[in-house]
Amino acid sequence: MKFPALFGRIAFSTLAALIGAAFALPLLWFLFAPFNARAELGLAIPDPFTLSNFNTVFGNGFAMQALWNSLIQAVGGVILVGAAATLAAYALSRSSIPGKGAVTYILLLFSSVVSGSAAMVPIFLIISAAGLMDTHLAVILTFAGGLLPTAMFILRDFIDSIPKSYEESAMVAGASPVQAFFDVALPVIRPGIVVIVVWSFVNIWGSFLIPFILLRSSANMPAAVAIYSFYSEAGTPVVTLLAAYSLIYSLPVVALYLFVSWRFGFRFFGGIKA
Amino acid sequence: MASVAFSKVTKSFGEFKAVSDVSFDIGDGEFVCLLGPSGCGKTTSLRMIAGLETPTSGQVMIGGEDVTHFHPKDRNIAMVFQDYALYPHMNLADNIAYPLKVRGEAVSKRHARAKEVADVLKIGHLLDRLPSQISGGQQQRTSLARALVYPAQVYLFDEPLSNLDAKLRLEARGFLNHLQRDMGMTAVYVTHDQAEAMALATRIAVMDQGRIVQYASPIEIYRRPATTFVANFVGNPPMNLVEVEATKDDGKLQLKADGLTIAALPMTDAIGTALAAGSKLTLGIRPEHLDVAGAGAPNTITAPLFANENMGPESLVTIDRGEGARVTARIFTDDHIALGETVTLGFAADHVHLFDSAGKRIPEING
Ligand SMILES: Nc1ncnc2c1ncn2[C@@H]1O[C@H](COP(=O)(O)OP(=O)(O)O)[C@@H](O)[C@H]1O
Ligand SMILES: [Mg+2]
């Protein structure tokens, strides 16, 4: 290697390492702080190393119930979004309804409004008129409404890229449309559905505003809201407990990613021949 | 096995007619090829037999029954797709056995049958592989096995060999021909490759722009093409077409074109009718009916040499009559032919085809 090229590589690697470190630091803090008895905003190796923060957090009934609530709302939302988006996207992709392209685009346009804060007042009024205030169902339905258009859009694109001849060959071989869907189309679409499931889970799991507005009782609040119970009356965070709770709060999402990439892999099948 | 029939079938996509007013009959046990250039409506016709497309008007019959509005699953047909359409998540055994699965056969029974068919097609050792783990030729045979695993009334093929390389294609073509002799199946086979159609078909339907221009046996299509389109599509290389100016002289037909000498042809009623419509006729001669001749011989065509290609058992000699009008002779010799700058190609009068000014064949020109 010539000297200038070598120098260039060293400079590039150093720069990349610095940028990497800048991103890694908060993550390291996030991993170390929960095990530190003293509240520190700087990065420090826990000394002494302790699990007492976790003890306190696990002893907090409200915070633990909130994690369970988050799970109910996220899983409920994911099932609704996954099932509805799959069926809707499949229909939009395979049928020849006139104007089906426009339908998806208009829905997509409005969806950014629905889950945005601008729509909070109407959503509040609708949910309250439906008598669903302070229920998990209210949160699940609102998220489903907000996430569905994007999920449909992504999935429809994915299904469009899968040759129709899969289902056609199944039907010619004697399968009904329903059989062709479940035996042939669904398994081929599955990688796309997995993407939707992970994406909507992460979205619901991390959301604060919608549950905060639609829920009343502390027994129904999800973790994103419960985090505020680790703030003192004066509004300053109790860093030690907050860090421990945050770590627990982020584990299900990490676990979901690991499970999905182990079980399905984030890959698309596509056709065998172009 | 069953017969298939189209009766005045039209299929429009919006304003565009992909298939227009097509009628034909396919007898029980016949192997019919739909032959034509890309976009002429072959696949659309096949898909209407399968029920994957519904005609805009007209009827489709299978086994004498009107199936125009039947769902594909109720037609008892088998189809091989151009892209094979193998299910990527199922191994070969499950792929091949899928038609039996939807017919409610038990797993052990359908896998035994899949193995049987796979063995015949020499893919029996690959049954636990996924489609992505086998070669293109093996994928093609898998899709064929899936079509053959159950007894169907009609077998449909949509360019099943077009994704194979030349050598595999010849092999698969021979196998399909053997299969047809063996099973006597009713088959409709779509292709744009005239050699495939000639080799496999009991009858060929030549299609052009959504219509059937000729429906006849391969030999008939080769010997008596109905139009210049058919003449130019069938044969390798296709028939040479030379525009000629025709005049009636002394009760005989005189044909004139640059470099062409041809003895006057006897007049017939058909020629008379054609001449009345226009005097610009088209003379057709197949490359294999041309040979190098001495200058001054009676039936010849002369022009500067364009190409002289020796391909082993035969040579293709092409002369250029100007403005891209070329004439090719196919000469059966395994030796290189020494030629001068100008070449004269000769032909026998009874190998001449004549088409009227609209491109339609003038029948019986040699009496
Ligand atoms: N679903 C469709 N929508 C619109 N046009 C179509 C559709 N299917 C086929 N066509 C058109 O019909 C014509 C015939 O198509 P096809 O039957 O596939 O031709 P071939 O198989 O002979 O190449 C083509 O011009 C094609 O673009
Ligand atoms: Mg086609």
From TrEMBL, chain A:
This is ABC transporter permease. GO terms for cellular component: plasma membrane. Residues 67-260 form the ABC transmembrane type-1 domain. The keyword 4Fe-4S does not apply. Gene3D superfamilies: MetI-like. It is a multi-pass membrane protein. GO terms for biological process: transmembrane transport. The keyword Ribonucleoprotein does not apply. It is found in: Cell membrane. InterPro entries: BP-dep_ABC_trans_perm (IPR050901), MetI-like (IPR000515), MetI-like_sf (IPR035906). PROSITE patterns: ABC_TM1. Coiled coil: none annotated. Belongs to the binding-protein-dependent transport system permease family. Keywords: Cell membrane, Membrane, Transmembrane, Transmembrane helix, Transport. The chain crosses the membrane at residues 68-93, 105-131, 137-159, 238-260. Its main location: membrane.
TrEMBL record, chain B:
GO terms for cellular component: ATP-binding cassette (ABC) transporter complex, substrate-binding subunit-containing. It is found in: Cell inner membrane. Residues 4-234 form the ABC transporter domain. It is a peripheral membrane protein. InterPro entries: AAA+_ATPase (IPR003593), ABC_transporter-like_ATP-bd (IPR003439), ABC_transpr_MalK-like (IPR015855), ABC_transpr_MalK/UgpC-like (IPR047641), Mo/tungstate-bd_C_term_dom (IPR008995), NA-bd_OB-fold (IPR012340), OB_MalK-like (IPR040582), P-loop_NTPase (IPR027417). Its main location: membrane. Keywords: ATP-binding, Cell membrane, Membrane, Nucleotide-binding, Translocase, Transport. It comes from the Bacteria. The keyword Protein biosynthesis does not apply. Pfam families: ABC_tran (PF00005), OB_MalK (PF17912). The keyword Membrane applies. GO terms for biological process: carbohydrate transport. GO terms for molecular function: ABC-type transporter activity; ATP binding; ATP hydrolysis activity. Belongs to the ABC transporter superfamily. PANTHER family: MALTODEXTRIN IMPORT ATP-BINDING PROTEIN MSMX (PTHR43875), TREHALOSE IMPORT ATP-BINDING PROTEIN SUGC (PTHR43875:SF15). This is ABC transporter.
